[in-house]
Amino acid sequence: MVRTTARLLLVCATVLPLGAAAQERSIFDDVRIEVTPESHGVDPYPNELVMLRIRGTYRPLINIAHMIQPPLTNFGWTNLTRDVAYDAEFDGFPAKTFERVIAIFPEKSGELEIGSFTHKLSVVDGAGQRTLEVKSAPIKLKVAEWTGPGGPRDPKQWWLPSAGVRVTDQWSGDPNRVPRGETLRRTVTIEADGVMAEQLPPSPVMRSPGVISFRGPIDRETRVTENGPVARAVYRWDMRPTTAYPAIVEPIDIPWFDTRSRTMRKAVIPAQRMAWAVSGAPADASAAPAEAAPGPWATAGAGALAFLTGLALLTIGRRGAGAPRLPPRALYAMRIAAWRRDPVAFRAAVTRLARAEPEASRLWARDPEARAGLAELDRHLFDAAAAPPPALGRLGRRIASARAAAVAAGRTARSGLKPLDGPA
After folding, report:
1. Which of 3-17, 360-374, 376-390, 391-405 comes out lowest in average pLDDT?
2. In 27-57, which positions are buried (b, 16+ CB within 10 angstroms) versus exposed (e)?
3. Domain 27-143: which topology?
4. Where are the domains of the chain?
5. Residue predicted with more confidence, 254 or 27
6. Distance from C-alpha of 399 to C-alpha of 361, rounded to nearest angstrom
7. Which superkingdom does the taxonomy of this entry point to (predicted)?
8. Following DSSP, what letter does each residue of 185-239 receive, concatenated?
9. How far apart are alpha carbons 37 and 62 in whole angstroms?
10. How far apart are CA 364 and CA 396, in angstroms?
11. How far, in whole angstroms, is CA 390 from its chain's centroid?
């Protein structure tokens, strides 16, 4: 009897641990976590988006779950969506699947390692409540080395790998008709798919002859979607013409790498013409009513006027190109504005002077001292606190002197015709 009891106890002592071990193995065999980088069959370049999908499938009933992410050394990253859970099957048995997707951006070329993700679980099964730690296997991601021109290591060109880049250009008014003395706000928006806001380029430099620009504030934001981040940057400039003639704001190319076609492309901020608005345009003469037929006194007056006009032309022809000529009123207005120390009126008078004498203004506008003074004046008009006004009296005298030389040069160029009555 004693032997039988001893044998039963020995069998129980042997069977119970085996059963417990089998139960524990079944628990660990019924949980699984996998990490999959989605690179679409190509090796990404540095700073290119890679979607990292973490998926865990578990048969036991889970009470508490907590994901521990490894330190992603040599990667930038951001969460895209919240963790999702849905019903699934595990070897034909009902199970629960948890999924997380993060966006990672490799920071350099080579074979980079992604460590193990650990899912801490509190599960309930036939053996009661247990705490498990399920770990994914470490994986390695191969990041390609750029071999073409430009690329992530080129300090002269911004590296922007994206699935799509869009550029919009807006002006606060018509750049072809800028009101006198005012500035326009230019707003350029760049949107790029698959990048973060800090990956967008810095504010481009708007430099074009005949245009002055001042950089405004920049807004950056990243919108997270299921397909990856979408970056948006808004750049602003305050701009105005600096000459009386139309100027062209040059286009700006923004190179970017198309991650879909695997080719370099360019987005363009378009060129734009800028000019002051024309003021004092004459009314439409076609709308004037028809006048009555001229009377005899009007006919006689017209004849006398024609005679005097012909006589004046003959006199001018005899004297040549050196006939006296009154300077335009804008020149007097410029001198008065300089005496009053009124930079706004001074700039308006200079613009009227250039429009009154387009040929001469093309010559005196090339004068280095006059050009530098006008540029200094424009900077002061735009931001009086940042730029002091120039000496208007000296600038006015320089413009008047350059204008006189330009007018004299124009008369000399036109004096090539022989006098009507032969040489003197």
Report:
1. 3-17
2. beebbbbebebebeeeebbbbbbbbbebbbb
3. Immunoglobulin-like (2.60.40)
4. 27-143, 161-274, 316-414
5. 254
6. 10
7. Bacteria
8. EEEEEEEEETS-GGGSPPPPP--BTTEEEEE---EEEEEEETTEEEEEEEEEEEE
9. 26
10. 12
11. 33
